[in-house]
Amino acid sequence: MTDSQKQKMQFLSRASAVQEKLLTLQEIWQKETFLFQKFPFLETQCRQQILSLLSVREFVLWKISSIPDIVLQTILIRRYFLHDTMEKIAEYLHYDLRTIQRKHLQALDAFPFCISETTIFP
């Protein structure tokens, strides 16, 4: 794996963590209406964090969607946003595992990434 691929993988892993945090905050948002009524500032903070995380997620998905090959897009989305294993992605796409691993590296090479974009994460 090249240094560029490693950097892109780290970037996408951070985007994956954003997705997890977003899901957690959305769950809190749905379950804690009583808490938000008692402490309105918590609702405001939660809403701001959700909006911030949504914009990061949408930015990363937009970058992935710029990859011309739909299979490469699918691999990145399933790996970093749906948290599928390489085996599960191979099964989903009807490829063997080694092909998916190779295509994953191709997807990382095709992913448009600039090191300055790492500042998008909250």
In summary, what is this structure?
The protein has 122 residues and is mainly α.
Task: List key phrases describing it.
122 residues; elongated; mainly alpha
Number of helices: 6
Alpha carbon gap, first and last residue: 28 Å
Tally of domains: 1
Shape: elongated
Uncertain segments of ≥5 residues (pLDDT<50)? none
Indicate the mean pLDDT: 88
Radius of gyration: 17 Å
Helix content: over 70%
Q: In this structure, how is the largest beta sheet organized?
A: none
SS content category: mainly alpha
Strand content: under 5%
Secondary structure: elements and pairs:
Elements: H1 3-31, H2 33-38, H3 40-65, H4 70-80, H5 86-93, H6 97-110
Helix pairs in contact: 1-3, 4-6, 5-6
Commentary on this structure:
By secondary structure, the protein is mainly alpha-helical. It has one domain. The protein has 6 helices and no strands. The model has no long low-confidence stretch (mean pLDDT about 90).
